[in-house]
Amino acid sequence: MPRPKILLTNDDGINSSGLWAAYDALSTFADVRVVAPATQQSAVGRSISIFEPLRMNKVTMHGTQAYAVGGRPTDSLLLGLYGLGLKPDLVVSGINLGENISFESITTSGTVGAAMEAANQGVPSLAYSLQMSDLGNKAEKPRSRPLDFTQSKEVMIKLTKLFLEKGLPKNSHLININIPAAKIEGYEVTVLGERLFKTSVEKRIDPRGKPYYWINGELIYIPEEHSDVTALRQNLVSITPLTMDNTAFKACDDLKKMIADVN
Questions:
Q1: In angstroms, how far is the first alpha carbon of the chain from the final one?
Q2: How far is the C-alpha of 146 from the C-alpha of 240, rounded, in Å?
Q3: 15 in Cβ contact with 140 (< 8 Å)
Q4: What are the respective helix, strand and coil percentages of the chain, to the nearest 5?
Q5: Phi/psi of residue 102, each to 5°?
Q6: b/e code 24-37 from CB counts within 10 Å (16+ = b)
Q7: What is the structure's pLDDT at 97?
Q8: Each residue of 192-211: pLDDT tens digit?
Q9: CA nearest 119: which of 46, 187, 59?
Q10: How many other CB atoms sit within 10 Å of the CB of residue 182?
């Protein structure tokens, strides 16, 4: 029986330890092609480079041939599908260093953005993210010891095999999976939490006396039953089915009433 074909990408860049942990896990049962951004591309969402040319370089990393794209995660995905002519059975994005949970995170996440673009192109996709107990690790500078991906690899093997065998559930276009940093206590099908950050902007002054700004965010927690945010706090693997249809169906009736006198 032929091995399944997986296109693997991410938003942390081709040097990310999470990307290569994913490669190690997936390559135990699938043929994996890595096409990933050449540099860190977190929080670029599903943006696509339509006004500038893209370069894609063949590189060898960890003894494996891969492709480094001078662009965003979605660019990498599209160049893999159409520039290289790959025809994967599944697209996997991750393992992202840092969780991608709640309404606000999935719309900014380049990891989820790449999986969304795969779904848009008709290819089933999974996005994997790992909760960070030390945010310094997000920048690939572990403060104490290298990251341990043992749990993440086990989760990735189990769930990826499951979705390759059974397909995605009806009415979903992609699956967003978040893995706790602590010992896993179980798995839960979740919904998106409402919020994750209280956004702020910090103003600073450079050596020449001119202001510059950092967009910042304080983590907050809104208790919500069965949300991805709550699941991670309980050390559960959060598995959230997502759809590309952003229609607010519950608002349609009210909106019809509101515009009744417009015509």
A1: 61
A2: 28
A3: yes
A4: 30, 30, 40
A5: 80, 165
A6: bbbeeebebbbbbb
A7: 96
A8: 998 777 888 999 999 999 99
A9: 46
A10: 11
Q: What is the CATH number of domain 5-194+223-258?
A: 3.40.1210.10
Of residues 90, 68, 94, 95, the one with CA closest to residue 79: 68
Confidence (pLDDT) at 142 = 46
pLDDT score at 221: 79
3-state SS, residue 111: helix
Kindly report the CA angle at 66 between 57 and 82, in degrees rounded to 5? 70
Calculate the alpha carbon distances from 235 to 167, 174, 186 in Å: 26, 22, 7
Instruction: Point out the residues of the chain with pLDDT beneath 50.
Output: 142-144
Sort strands 174-179 and 125-130 into parallel, antiparallel or unpaired: parallel
- What pLDDT, on the 0 to 100 scale, is given for residue 135? 55
Strands 56-61 and 31-37: unpaired
Task: Decide if 114 contacts 47 (C-beta within 8 A).
Answer: no
212 within 8 A of 206, measured Cβ to Cβ: yes
> What's the whole-model pTM score?
0.91
The domain limits of the chain are 5-194+223-258
The residue type at 36:
A
